[in-house]
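> tool_call: predict_assembly(chains=two)
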Amino acid sequence: MAIKTQTMKLPEFKPVQSRFRNALSKYRVTITKACNNCGLCVTLCPYGVYKAGSKKPRVVAEHLCLGFPCKEKEFYCVNKCPEKAIQLTLNPAFEILGDKRWSADLLASAWHMAETGEIPYQGLNYKTGNSGGGFDKLRFIFPREKALDIPDEEVSTAIELNRSGDSRPGVTIQVPFYFGGMSFGSVSIVTMLSRVKAAAALQTFCCTGEGGYPEELIPYDDHIITQIATGLFGVREETIKRVRIVEFKYAQGAKPGLGGHLLGDKVTARVASMREAVAGTALFSPFPFHSVYSVEDHKKHVDWIKETNYRALVSVKVSTPSDVDMVAVGSYYAGAHIVQLDGSYGGTGAAPDIAKKNIAMPLEYAVPKVHKFLSDEGIRDKVTIIASGGIRSAYDMAKAIALGADGVCLGTADLVALECIRCHHCESGRGCARGIATTDEELTKLMELEWATQRIINMYLVWRRQLIAILKRLGMRSVTELVGRFDLIGHLDYIKQEDVEGELEL
Amino acid sequence: MPPKYHIHTSRAENRFQKITKSGVIAWDEGCLKCARCVKKDCVYKVYEKRGIDTRQMLESLDSVCMDCFRCVQGCPNKLIQKGINPSYKELGDHYWTAEIISGLWYQAEAGRIPVSGGGYGGAFSGPGFDAMWTDMSEIVRPTRDGIHGREYISTTVDIGRKVMALEFDQAGALVNDPPPNVEIPQPIIFDLLPWSPPGKGINLAMLEGARSLGTFAIVRQSEFSPEMEEYLPNIVLYVDGNVSDISPKILRKLRLIEIPYGKDSIAAQKKLKEEHPGLVTIIRMELTPDSSGNVSRLIAEGAEAIHLVADEYGLEKSDKPLFIKERMREIHLHLVDKGVRDRITLIAGGGIAMAEHVAKLIICGADMLSVDIPLLVAMECRVCRRCKDGISCPVELETIDHLWGASRIRNLMAGWHNQLLEILGAMGIREVRRLRGEMGRAMFFENLEKDIFSTLGKRG
């Protein structure tokens, strides 16, 4: 289907520094007592690591230091320092930061992009994590020919969400991603608003999650997906009428087959009133929808929304069981425009560890399985497939699309842009110590709306540039050409450079 | 419907300071005493609460730190750093990893299941049990809410021989009495420990734990002592000597007995049954590549229950050992093929380290499991195996109070039970008996990789 290519007016990049005094970095730079404050390092360093100080230069931006590869450069401060007073070491904290999926490198890369709007240069692996499988072992096979030599503006990253051919309006997003549901209650109003504002700026969408539709969001109605989940928290007729996309959440990847759970500590008076509940009490979203026990019931659900809002598209968010392909087909025939496949790596809320690790199949299997099945059914072109739950980078996004998704839905990556360090304690006590996933008044103040919005915009501007670079290397002018190109992607365990004609990226 | 099985838990504090993943480092001279870290930054009030932990005279900072890095990022002189704790790296081994051990400690102390925010941060897959996923249902299945208490999910299993059909005489009376069966409320029994420090406390803790959970602990005949007598209804006596040495008084109180696999195990079973017809006999055999043949032969000869035991890494005895999950699949399918699977109870054990292993091994064909090392870990064991060489235990397991030990075991088992309910609930299965052998409701790494990833990148 042809997509209206309109030149996307990109939001502007603005540098936004870390909220914290000491940014977390891969390297540590220390100046010893031997320093005579000659100031040479301050002038030498092109990355702005130092600032002049009264007794000795101050190390103000270790995270921007090029690190050991700097040895080759003529401005390498450690060698140039006349007093040999500069020490460069690896930061021991890097060993405990992050986890196998979100490695310290990936975290630091996201922070770098959110701060500087640039691809990291400090030797950080910004493409893959250390999970040892799936996305982390999938690689593009690039043709040997040179990349398309065209300006970025001539490559389209837009996708159409209404592919059904029905009478409802088309909804085009200018980037192949939108932001997934994080309810008010699980994250602060600042976090929520910053994601919505960033979505509006990037001409895409942000989902409310299941926790109501705070009135602060009303100016952004056209960029909001409102969610209907099993607890029906905060769902009203007027909220459904307000938006262009309504999402049914049947299951979520972080806790497939299990309900949601907002701990009592996070249910403040405002959260409670939004959800029509009592402050301080834990809130459960049951599983499953107690009104849906068959695909016919599901169709009734979809019809209900379609009757309530004549222009809305309907999205169905499901997890990845062994029969995920059947689920996708069923959702389509019940009238869904979008099927969102939610893998188990994502999610902010509390979830039992056993569920995250063991229940339902990894996203990287589910997407190609669904793509193939829908293609064989002859309906792949009629429905939009969105992959979510663990998309950490532009590379993950591009791989998910090559595996058969039209686009992706993001969540954790946004939070990392806001300096989440993935300590995994979002659920406990007052919530996030870094003021992101919290409703505590004092902690919420740790973050300003404008700062947060710009960080998210910055990071995704880089993602978009990276995606365009990948498309150009593949000789493509639109991201829609990449969908389901199994021939352009290989798994390092099963394919070697000598097996392919192109260039297997290692 | 029987009353809902519920395990009462209560917090049982560690005796020793736990080994945490990370520690605060380089906290020394140059401190401005600005107290930023104390007053302003620490949400968890770690610095306010810090003190000397009197259990081991250790600084308490690390055991309460939640790794938010606020102090690291806030200190004006960059004096606070965090780094990995070397003792954590050394904890356990490749199979009994530091993550597994810490997770068991948490459950045993808190009596709660591990819950966290922020999605999954682990490996894509791994060897053994990490190479499979369990299924879930989106909509079409019975309502459930096992954890939160509206629906009943049964975890009860039976040990004993099943009759395939009842036979009646002309008058309508049963021709044969059905064979004895022992029902236990969760599919786990406690196995002999592969190693442990000496001390009766450990055995008594396991027995007390088994009794309060309504399950069984296996005790060697040679190690049976008079103070265990009160626990006889919850003991599986393992016959490591002569059957004739077991006093009739003790035998009568037993419901389960375990005998080693050998030429005369069926004869021994017969003899035991003559003395105590209500007794169910379990035949214990090492898991080997020949297990399926041996099991089906024993079924034909009249065995009631078989306990298949792998080593502490879940490996069978062989030059090229298969992992327990693979071997159990093979045995289960072999018995299904022969049409005899339902006659026998299969108990499998060895290498069972986490709650998810319970559900996964049952899916692969075991009726129930035996657990060993996790029970020790519940009592703070660090899996250093020094006791094997007669070196003293770093957490002085020989000195534990058995009631404390039992409550730690109970907490852990409550956690495992609740996690089993999570898996069953997500699958829409309402009793664990129906989970057994449900390989169609699981997804296996090798199949998915073959179907999906191995085909990528190919032309055409």
